[in-house]
Design goal:
about 90 residues; Alpha-Beta Plaits; 4 strands
C-alpha cells in the first residue's frame, strides 16, 4: 500500500480558510481510495503547516489514477488560490 501525504500552508491561516480547504478536500472522495484522512494543525510553530491530508492507495498505478482523477483535479483547482506552499510525500506503508 502507498500513502500520499500532502502538507498545506495557507496564505491566510484563518479558521474560515482552514474550514474552506478542509471541506473541499473532504468532499473530494475518489473511487479507489482505500483510506483518507484530513487534519488541521494545532501547533503555533511558524514552521508548521496548516492542514495535512493523507490518501492510501493500493499501488503506484492507483496513485497515478488518483492524481489524474477529475475529482482530484477539481479539488486542487478549488483550493490552489488559498495555498502558499505544499509539501508532498509518497511512501510505502509497511
Amino acid at each position: 500500500m502507498l500513502r500520499h501525504t500532502v502538507f498545506f500552508k495557507l496564505k491566510e491561516p484563518t479558521e474560515k480558510n482552514k474550514e474552506h480547504v478542509y471541506d473541499k478536500i473532504m468532499k473530494g472522495r475518489i473511487e479507489g481510495l482505500l483510506d483518507m484522512n484530513v487534519g488541521v494543525n494545532v501547533s503555533q510553530d511558524e514552521k508548521a503547516y496548516d492542514i495535512i491530508a493523507s490518501f492510501d492507495v493500493e499501488n503506484e498505478i492507483a496513485l497515478q489514477a488518483f492524481a489524474n482523477d477529475p475529482v482530484h483535479v477539481e479539488v486542487v483547482h478549488a483550493i490552489l488560490d488559498s495555498i502558499s506552499d505544499i509539501k508532498i510525500v509518497d511512501h510505502l506503508v509497511l
